[in-house]
Amino acid sequence: MNAPFKLRPYQQEAVDATLNHFRKSDESAVIVLPTGAGKSLVIAELARLAKRKILVLTHVKELVEQNHAKYQSYGLTGGIFSAGLKRKESRHQVTFASVQSVSANLDQFRDEYSLVIIDECHRVSGEETSQYQRIIELLRQQNDALKVLGLTATPYRLAMGWIYRYHYRGFVRGEDDKPFQHCIYELPLSYMINRGYLTRPELVNAAVAQYDFSALPQDRFGEYAEKDVNELLSKHKRVTRAIVEQVMELAAERQGVMIFAATVDHAREITGYLPDHQTALITGATDLKDRDLLIERFKQRELKYLVNVSVLTTGFDAPHVDFIAILRPTQSVSLYQQIVGRGLRLNEGKQDCLVIDYAGNHVNLHHPEVGEPKPNPDSEPVQVFCPGCGFANIFWGKADGDGRVIEHYGRRCQGLLEPAIGDDSAKLQGRPQQCDYRFRFKECPHCGAENDIAARNCHQCQKAIIDPDDQLRDALKLKDAMVIRCAGISLVADGSKLRITYHGEDGEELSESFDFSKPGQRTVFNKLFGRRFANSQAPRVFSSADEVFELQTLLPAPDFVIARKQKHYWQVQERVFDYQGSFRKAY
């Protein structure tokens, strides 16, 4: 059966990447395609090529229906298993299903499936008890070589970061386990826009007052409590009215306007300022029949304004939308991109899509850096080259006016190294090894190996590493010990001797000297400070005290210094670098 659609070049590349990966490996994989890139066509082509049973999962009935329709357009027959669509068919070779319906009827999925495709796979968590993981586990019991493929425009989750570990362009996304192992194909949003596959977003700063949510407390996912948001918004009704008036003014030349509200109360208030006969409000509580009817009227352009609260970010397709107004706060880059993506589909006569963020979210649409939570509001993505393998890492950090990195928060190089010649075990695993260079590290007291700053046991000798919190706690209990929170260091060079003074935040001082004419002391200094020189970006081996003194501004200061009382002086015994624990970090 020939395909009725000719795949775009990148869609064919995504299909080829999938076939190549699963011929070599059973490890789970992710394809990243921007909203509007035609993921359903990639799914349909993969399902068409498959010889054995396939299950295509997603979380909303609209996407189940959309993916099924594309497959049927090939002249093939697939099943639908979705309570929302009132169909429960599981005997076809290809079944398009909602994750909720399959999870509630696991006994009907005891056949041997060769492949599970998960659309909008950023919704898959790492929790073993989640609906997705329970389904995958059941199918693996029938087939231990089960292939799992995810597709998404936004491959990250709040509090987790990236949902995969290894990227096909030769880098790794963190050391923790992820729901997926490999990203095998990725297409940036800018590629789609520049080549005319998507509408250009016209990102405009709000010309009227914005909401300021920055003072509100956030949960561990970086989101705000509805009660707090409502309380803040209730004090700014004049702001909301001014925003809606501007939206209506700018909408005069626009075809379809989607407004994303912060809460249900907020959405009702916004709706109240808009022309009644042109406006629909959809929330999670809207009756499904009413919701479908309102969406259809909006698509038919009987309505101009569609106000919603967290329900139309995925599985919604109205190509004529050319104005997105964001009136809700979010720390989720994924959610932000999904919101903007509602307006980027091509449509006749559509030149661009106006996007105005009234909530001050400050998300970079084209280059979201979300591997780790932002350590502080001043952080920006900085490029840090690995001294070990030369890989150009992107970490959160700070740069000066000339673009030089002043500070960064990277811990380990993200570069991937090809297996060494003769390393058959690595080749069999089918994956390269992550570069082991660490910018921040704890040294094992037993074997000297460098470990992650959060490690409890040495990755090399497996022995326990002293926890810095225990170290500090024990020292604070001793009458003859002194612990200072180090605010900075100063140096004095005198011939071959270098004196370092550690300045405590409360005015205390501790000092120690290194004699560079003695190889042992020189080695200790270089291990402590030379290895960490310039944020570990340019480790050096210093040979003289004068050489260190000339470059003292790039020497690292420890976060804590522990000393013990000798007869007439304090002797420095421990220097705690890169501290991340319950004791306050030095400022």
What features would you describe in this structure?
- The protein is an alpha/beta fold and 587 residues long.
- Helix content is 26%, strand content 25%.
- The chain has 15 helices and 30 strands.
- The strands form 7 sheets. Strands 4-3-5-2-6-7-1-12-10-11 form a 10-stranded mixed beta sheet. Strands 13-18-17-14-16-15 form a 6-stranded parallel beta sheet, sandwiched between helices.
- The chain is globular and about 85 Å long.
Q: Round the Cα radius of gyration to an integer and report it.
A: 28 Å
Structural class estimated from helices and strands: alpha/beta
Cα separation of the termini: 67 Å
Q: Tell how many strands the DSSP assignment holds.
A: 30
**Tally of DSSP helical segments:** 15
Q: Spans with pLDDT under 50 lasting ≥5 residues?
A: none
- Strand order in the largest sheet: 4-3-5-2-6-7-1-12-10-11
Mean pLDDT: 87
Oligomeric state of the chains? single chain
Strand content: 25-35%
* Helix share, percent: 25-40%
Outline = globular
Biggest pleated-sheet summary = 10 strands, mixed
What is the structure about, briefly put?
By secondary structure, this protein is an alpha/beta fold. Helices cover 26% and strands 25% of the residues.
